[in-house]
Structure formats: structure tokens, C-alpha cells
Design brief:
The complex is a heterodimer of chains A (542) and B (293). Chain A has 542 residues and is an alpha+beta fold. Chain A folds into three domains: 148 residues, D-Maltodextrin-Binding Protein, domain 2 (3-Layer(aba) Sandwich); 138 residues, Dipeptide-binding Protein, Domain 1 (Dipeptide-binding Protein, domain 1, Alpha-Beta Complex), CATH 3.90.76; 216 residues, Dipeptide-binding Protein, Domain 3 (Dipeptide-binding Protein, domain 3). Chain A has 18 helices and 16 strands. In chain A, the strands form four sheets. A six-stranded mixed β-sheet of chain A has the order 12-16-11-15-13-14, with helices on both faces. A four-stranded mixed β-sheet of chain A has the order 1-10-9-8. A four-stranded antiparallel β-sheet of chain A has the order 4-5-7-6, with helices on one face. With 293 residues, chain B is mainly alpha-helical. Chain B has a single domain, classed as MetI-like (MetI-like fold), CATH 1.10.3720.10. Chain B has twelve helices and no strands. Chain B is globular and about 75 Å long. Chain B starts with a helix and ends with a helix. The relative contact order of chain B is 0.16. The chains are: A alpha+beta (542), B mainly alpha (293). At the A-B interface, helix 11, helix 13 and strand 14 of A face loops of B.
Chain lengths: 542, 293
């Protein structure tokens, strides 16, 4: 008797937890019926505080729950009105004046004002906040100084309110991509009263981000979040454009294992996956599946060289290594056509920029360079390690490159893999010879890739420090007057960087995922950026 | 029944080992297993001279191909010959399996026999040490060992062996405790044999059955353990491989390239079957009491 009661209890509990599911209906079907978008989101966001979280999973959530002054159009990636309904840019490109819409509301009904933005940006740049995105606002006059502590008075920074609904931002130099920075998911606006009600404004792990406390201004607002369970957001009842929203809810499913995620998709549990295992791509291609999406992505996969190690300190050696990698073979055979061979750090076509063609796959030239550096036929070259973070994909690329260097240059290489955080630590401490790395552009401009080579850049842990390159990036390029001139100077700088080769580009990323073919309004774009306001589910589109 | 009686029952004077060998040969499954293992080991030993391809030799443009005349078991995604890689992997896996198991059995048998034979306080202390070691998370222990001493294949063998001996020690201790009060041991004591001789000549041979069975079970778990460590980056590093690694890579692409899973899987399961048959047969052959039942 007792046993039956337990079974009955368990059944009731299961049913109660799935109120939206009628028997025999998959999650996608019930989602289509109820307007719930189920999306695979990789891992759990580390936080819902836009000044704390830096990962892509968090960014995907931020686009749904926050709205900045401007947002990106998912088709063109051009900035379009968000909280600001219009803006003016002064003729010298230094002053941006934003006019906020008066019907923008927080999820508790409060109006969104210019002061909210001013306070948010002050928090954004406060040194105690430790915001890793802070550099995104460095084009603003005084922002860098305020962040580094040289300036303590925020009124000296070029951000000020001009009344309740207008805001003026003043820049140091003309920055053509500045609106893109404001459209970035980290440039969200946060709710001061909520944050202050739950502790210090700069506390990194305060309770204000808990679903029961959080107040946001985006189209959606979180209402349920447990570790390793879907993060659920629902329509913000006060959102200014709520009439046009087609989705009622979005559930962000943490799916760290890509193979499992693919099975979930096949079982009708997800509308969209976060990624797709490389070896599955040919299967979906062969089946002509309408669900498969493979599209260029604004990111570069590269090997960074520790330029302080013997042998590797010689730029000729680094170029020889770069020239003896058969990128076409890697892209075709290992990555199954899901990537594009890269011969530059900046992906081609970044906002009309064509990177210079400085080198190609040329084993003869590579052997010659190696001989000039004092290692004919690889003799006497110190053996070194390729470090990568534990992952099937990285291992495959490393195994192929290991063999190419052995075959073309007769250099012995060993492979080492480390868990993600250990690997980051080794990289930061320059405790490696050559390490696998990837860089995803923060905005669509060559600078986001080329400033990696700056001696002052925290992500440049190669030991490469070149005054001429620093000058090119931080003085020569900002002084360009026209767009073509600016792009030409970028090409000069990139050619110089590729001569020195502290970074060996390998391929340009493509994003690959599965998407329910009945979904509308989720166009492919190079930033893999979604604007959930545009999305309609299968049933709604019919 | 005891060994002594079994020996007196055969006045021809065949030794325990010759006797066991004769029994083993009659057990077809076990003998077949032995032949299979010897054949495989011989093949793996000779691999560097007989393999038609190098284990790191890539042909990227060919990629993964199913079995063909040129590549009997097909190729992997790098276009490397799978047969060659299985043979090279077998060298690592068999060596890890045998060496680590031998280390574990060596330590475990000696430790367990001493604890069981002396009993009392010695036994209590020795077994509490084992309990303490049981409580340690071994994964972390091995990972620490590898970090301190660096990645070295021989060390990997020893490290795995050094953590696998605990259960063995308990089994042997139990056996020895049960045996040491039997008449033949008392007889040996009254004959004035030294303790060491009694343990070596009378107790251990009688405790061999469970040891052998447990050892054959240890071999596969050690092989899988090695694959796990290698996956974490602590064991074998590419381009070298082992069966465990080949299988774990094969699993990821089993729908696209099933042969990458099937053949390494067959090699491992074949070996494990052979080992189990052999272990079973050896126990029957060596355990006089069981044979008389």
C-alpha cells in the first residue's frame, strides 16, 4: 500500500512539474503552442549582472532581459533604436546626444531615465566593480582614467544627463564603431534601487540578480533560475514594445555536451542548439536537413607563441611554423568544411576591410626561413609543447599540426591538454610554448582583433611588445581622417603583425547549430547575435 | 583436502605446477584464451617491424575510410591506418594492464599475506592503513603523482598499480586467515619450517585462486583507467594511443564511422574474454580443493 502511495506521489510530482506538457507532446510542440522558445545555451550564465558576467551564454540572456540605448538589427547588425528613440552625432564625431523614449519602463513600472544610464555607466567604470568589459567604454573622454583610478570624480567623465530623457556622451577621438559598443549586451542599463536594496552597489555577487529580486528593462524578465536547470524568462509586462513581441517566454537550457544537445534537438526538446559536433555536420549536409545552419562568425582560431622561449623568439621561426600548416586540409578533413582557412587575424570582410595577404602555405619557403634562423632541416631545434584546453576539436587540430610540423620542418612537438581554468592560468602566466587560442570580435571592426598585439593588452600574453606596432594601433590609426584611410592603415598594421607572427592564425570560425526550420526572425549574422523581438515560432508564423 | 594429501595421492611425484599445467591444457576455453593472448602479445611486440604504416602517418586528404584492401580495418579522420594504431595501442594497453596488475598483485599479496599470517596487532595496524588509503580519492592521488613526477609511461604503470593493490590485500588476508589454522599449516609449523617458508610454500599457493580471478578483473579496469587519465592529459599523449583512447574517440563518431569504435572495441573485449577464460581455467587448475569437488 505504502509503496503505491509513493509511486502515486512521484507521479503527481512529475505531472505538477510539467504543467505545460500534454502527454505525447514534445517540448518544441508545446513551446510552439504556448509561445515558449527553447534554446540550448551552452552553460549556465555565471551571473545576471552585466558588469560581472563575460561569457557568451550570459550575453545571450542579456539581449533578452536588458535593453541599452541602441540595439543591433539582427539582419544588418546596424544599430537601431533601443531605449533611445533617436540620436544626434556632432560633425566632428565626438559628441553623441541620445533622446530617450518616454514610454520605456522597468519591469516594476518605473520609467527608464537618462540618470539610470549615467549611474549604470558610473558603476560600469568604477574600479571596485572589476568589470572586465570596462575597456568597451574607453573611447569615452575620461573613462580610461576613471577606471584606472587617475580620475575619481565621475562628473569629469564625458557622460552627462541633459534633463530626464536625454543623455550626452563625449568621446576622446572619433570612434566609428561607438554605437556598436553601446549595442553590445554588456552595455545594458541596470536598476539602481534594486541593486542598492541588496547591498553595496559594487558587490559582485549580490542577491539583486536572483529571479525573485531582479528588475530589468528588456523585453523579458527572468522568473526562474536554478543551477543546471533552464533559466526561464517571460514577457516584461511594462516593456514599451510589448505589443509586437511574439514570444511569451524563453527557456535557456544549459547544454555543455554538444552530443547530448544534438540528441535533445532530434527528440524535439529544443528549438535551437548552441552548437553542433563537427562530425555531425556532414551527416546533416548529406540529408539536406533544413535545420542545419553553418555561417561565418566574427572570430579567429589561432596559436599564440610564447616569444620568450628559445627558438620561438625568432620571428623567422614563427613564420616558418605558420607557413607549414596546411590550413585547407585541416578545414576540409578535420573540421569538415565548418571553418574557413585564415591567413590573417582579422576575418576577411570585417566591415569592408580586406586583410593583407602576407603569407600562404609554402613548406619550401618555411624550410628556408628555418634554415636562415640557424636550424637547417630542423636540426638542433628545441622540442616544444602545444598547449590546448581539453576538447575533442582542439585535440584534432593539434594532432594534425603536430604531424605537419614534423613532416615539413622535422620539428618534434608534444601535445599537452589542460582543463579550461588551468589552461587560462598557464596562458596568463606565460607557462607554455605555443598555446591554442580563439578571439571573438566584440564589435565589427578590425581593431577588436588587431589591438590583441598591443603590449598593454591584457590578452596579449605572448611576450610580444613592439613599440612600432603600439604606435600604429594607438596613434597612427586613430589619426586617420577618412574611412578608406583608416582601413588602409589597419592593413599596414596587420601586415606588420603578420611579419612578426606572435599569433599564428589557423581558421576563421563558423558558427554551426541546428534551428527548427519553422522559426522566423533569427537570421544568420557574423556575430551570432539574436534580437528576440524579431523571433516568431512555428505556429505563430502560420 | 590439502596440497599435501593431493601430492601423496600421486606417488609419481608430479609437482603442483606440472599438475596444474596438465589440467589447464584440458580446459579448451582457457587454453584457447592463453594462445590468443600470446598471439596478440607477439603481434604487438613485433608491430614496429611488421606494421605497413607508421602510427602517426597522416593522410588528411583521404580522411576516414571504411575497411579496404589497403587498410584492412579502415582509417581514422586523419587518414591513419587503424590496424597499425590498434597494434601500437595494444602495446600500451597490454603493458599497462599487465605491469600495473603485476605491481598491484605483488604488493597486495605480500601485504595481505603478512597481515593475515601475523594477525593480532600487526594485522590491525596494517589493515587500518589499508582502510585509510581506501578513503583517499585515488584519482586525485594519481593526478598528484603524475604532476610531481612528470609524465612518464613507466611511472604511469607503477602509479596505477600502486593504487590498485588494496582490494587484493584484503582478499589475500582473508584467505590466509582462513588457511593458517588448518592442519597442514600446523603440520608445517610442527616440522619446524620458518614463517617465511610457510607463507611462501603453503599459504600463498592455496590462496592463488581468488588472486588470479581478481587479477583478471583488474586488468580491464586498469586499461580503462589509463584511457581516463590519458583523456585528462596525464597519460599517453597524441599521436600515441591506447585501446581505451581509441575507443573513447570512436564513441564520439560511432554513428558516422562505426569501424573506429568496432575494431578497437573488439580488440579490447577479445583480450578481456581471453583473460577471463584463462583466469577461470587457472583457478580451476590451481585450486586443488575446487578440482576435487
Amino acid at each position: 500500500m505504502i509503496r503505491w502511495r509513493i509511486v502515486a506521489l512521484a507521479l503527481t510530482a512529475t505531472l505538477a512539474s510539467l504543467p505545460a506538457c500534454t502527454p505525447g507532446e514534445s517540448r518544441v510542440e508545446s513551446g510552439n503552442r504556448l509561445g515558449i522558445f527553447h534554446i540550448g545555451n551552452g552553460s549556465d550564465p555565471e551571473s545576471l549582472d552585466p558588469h560581472v558576467a563575460t561569457g557568451i551564454p550570459a550575453g545571450n540572456v542579456f539581449s533578452a532581459i536588458y535593453e541599452g540605448l541602441v540595439v543591433s538589427n539582427p539582419y544588418t547588425l546596424e544599430p537601431e533604436p533601443g531605449v533611445a528613440e533617436r540620436w544626434e552625432i556632432s560633425a566632428d564625431g565626438l559628441r553623441y546626444r541620445f533622446y530617450l523614449r518616454q514610454n520605456a519602463r522597468w519591469s516594476n513600472g518605473d520609467p527608464v531615465t537618462a540618470e539610470d544610464f549615467r549611474w549604470t555607466y558610473e558603476r560600469y567604470l568604477t574600479p571596485a566593480m572589476g568589470n572586465e568589459w570596462a575597456y568597451m567604454l574607453f573611447p569615452v573622454r575620461g573613462a580610461k582614467e576613471f577606471f584606472s583610478g587617475d580620475l575619481t570624480d565621475f562628473t569629469q567623465v564625458g557622460i552627462r544627463t541633459l534633463g530626464e530623457y536625454s543623455l550626452e556622451i563625449e568621446l576622446k577621438n572619433p570612434t566609428p564603431y561607438f554605437l556598436q559598443l553601446l549595442a553590445h549586451s554588456s552595455s545594458a542599463v541596470v536598476h539602481r534601487p534594486t541593486i542598492e536594496a541588496h547591498g553595496s552597489p559594487t558587490a559582485r555577487y549580490s542577491a539583486w540578480t536572483r529571479p525573485q529580486n531582479i528588475v530589468t528593462n528588456g523585453p523579458f524578465v527572468p522568473y526562474e533560475w536554478k543551477i543546471s536547470r533552464p533559466l526561464k524568462v517571460r514577457k516584461n509586462p511594462h516593456y514599451w514594445d510589448r505589443e509586437r513581441l511574439r514570444l511569451n517566454e524563453i527557456h535557456f537550457h544549459p547544454t555543455e555536451n554538444a552530443t547530448t544537445e544534438e540528441r535533445l534537438f532530434r527528440a524535439g526538446q529544443l528549438h535551437k542548439t548552441n552548437t553542433l559536433p563537427t562530425d555531425k555536420v556532414p551527416v546533416y549536409r548529406a540529408a539536406n536537413s533544413p535545420a542545419l545552419r553553418v555561417q561565418p562568425y566574427l572570430g579567429t582560431y589561432y596559436y599564440q607563441v610564447n616569444t620568450t622561449r628559445p627558438g620561438l623568439s625568432d620571428a623567422r621561426v614563427r613564420r616558418a611554423l605558420a607557413m607549414s600548416i596546411d590550413r585547407a586540409a585541416i578545414s576540409r578533413s578535420i573540421l569538415r568544411g565548418t571553418s574557413i582557412p585564415a591567413f590573417s587575424m582579422t576575418p576577411p570582410g570585417t566591415l569592408g576591410y580586406q586583410p593583407p595577404a602576407v603569407f600562404s602555405f609554402d613548406p619550401d619557403k618555411a624550410r628556408q626561413l628555418l634554415a636562415e634562423a640557424g636550424y637547417p632541416n630542423g636540426t638542433g631545434f628545441p622540442s616544444f609543447e602545444i598547449l590546448y584546453n581539453t576538447s575533442e576539436g582542439h585535440r584534432k587540430v593539434a594532432v594534425a599540426i603536430q604531424q605537419m610540423w614534423k613532416r615539413e620542418l622535422n620539428i618534434d612537438v608534444t601535445l599537452t591538454n589542460q582543463e579550461w581554468k588551468v589552461y587560462l592560468d598557464s596562458r596568463d602566466n606565460m607557462d607554455y610554448d605555443i598555446a591554442r587560442a580563439g578571439w571573438i570580435g566584440d564589435y565589427v571592426d578590425p581593431l577588436t582583433f588587431l589591438d590583441l598585439g598591443l603590449s598593454s593588452n591584457g590578452n596579449n600574453n605572448t611576450g610580444f611588445a613592439d613599440p612600432h606596432y603600439d604606435w600604429l594601433i594607438s596613434e597612427h590609426i586613430p589619426a586617420a581622417r577618412t574611412r578608406p584611410e583608416r582601413l588602409a592603415r589597419f592593413a599596414t598594421a596587420e601586415a606588420y603583425l603578420l611579419e612578426k607572427m606572435p599569433f599564428i592564425p589557423i581558421y576563421t570560425y563558423q558558427s554551426k547549430y541546428l534551428l527548427d526550420p519553422t522559426i522566423r526572425g533569427l537570421p544568420p549574422n557574423i556575430r551570432d547575435h539574436y534580437n528576440y523581438r524579431y523571433i516568431t515560432l512555428g505556429s505563430a508564423a502560420d | 583436502m590439502t596440497v599435501m594429501q593431493a601430492q601423496t595421492a600421486r606417488p609419481a611425484g608430479r609437482s603442483l605446477w606440472a599438475d596444474a599445467w596438465a589440467r589447464l591444457r584440458q580446459n579448451r576455453l582457457a587454453f584457447g584464451g592463453l594462445i590468443f593472448l600470446l598471439f596478440l602479445m607477439g603481434l604487438c611486440l613485433l608491430t614496429p617491424w611488421i606494421a605497413p604504416y607508421g602510427y602517426a602517418e597522416q593522410n588528411l586528404s583521404m580522411g576516414a575510410t571504411p575497411p579496404s584492401a589497403a587498410h584492412w580495418l579502415g582509417t581514422d579522420i586523419f587518414g591513419r591506418d587503424l590496424l597499425t594504431r590498434i597494434l601500437y595501442g595494444g602495446r600500451v594497453s597490454l603493458a599497462v594492464g599487465l605491469v600495473a596488475t603485476a605491481v598491484a598483485a605483488g604488493i597486495g599479496v605480500l601485504y595481505g599475506a603478512l597481515a593475515g599470517y601475523f594477525g593480532g596487532r600487526v594485522d590491525a595496524v596494517m589493515m587500518r592503513v589499508v582502510d585509510t588509503l581506501y578513503a583517499l580519492p585515488f584519482m586525485i592521488f594519481i593526478i598528484l603523482l603524475m604532476l610531481v613526477f612528470g609524465r612518464n609511461l613507466l611511472l604511469l604503470f607503477l602509479a596505477i598499480g600502486a593504487v590498485e593493490w588494496l582490494t587484493m590485500a584484503r582478499i589475500v588476508r582473508g584467505q590466509v586467515q582462513a588457511l593458517k589454522n588448518m592442519e597442514f599449516v600446523e603440520a608445517a609449523v610442527s616440522l619446524g619450517l620458518s614463517r617465511w617458508t610457510i607463507i611462501r610454500r603453503h599459504l600463498l599457493p592455496n590462496a592463488l585462486g581468488p588472486v588470479i580471478v581478481y587479477a583478471t578483473l583488474t586488468v580491464p579496469s586498469v586499461m580503462l583507467f589509463e584511457a581516463f587519465l590519458s583523456f585528462l592529459g596525464l597519460g599517453i599523449q597524441p599521436p600515441r594511443s591506447s585501446w581505451g583512447l581509441l575507443i573513447s574517440y570512436g564513441v564520439e563518431t560511432m554513428e558516422e564511422y562505426p569501424w573506429l569504435l568496432i575494431f578497437p572495441g573488439l580488440a579490447l573485449t577479445g583480450t578481456l574474454f581471453a583473460l577471463n577464460f584463462l583466469g577461470d581455467g587457472l583457478r580451476d587448475a590451481l585450486d586443488v580443493r575446487a578440482a576435487k569437488d
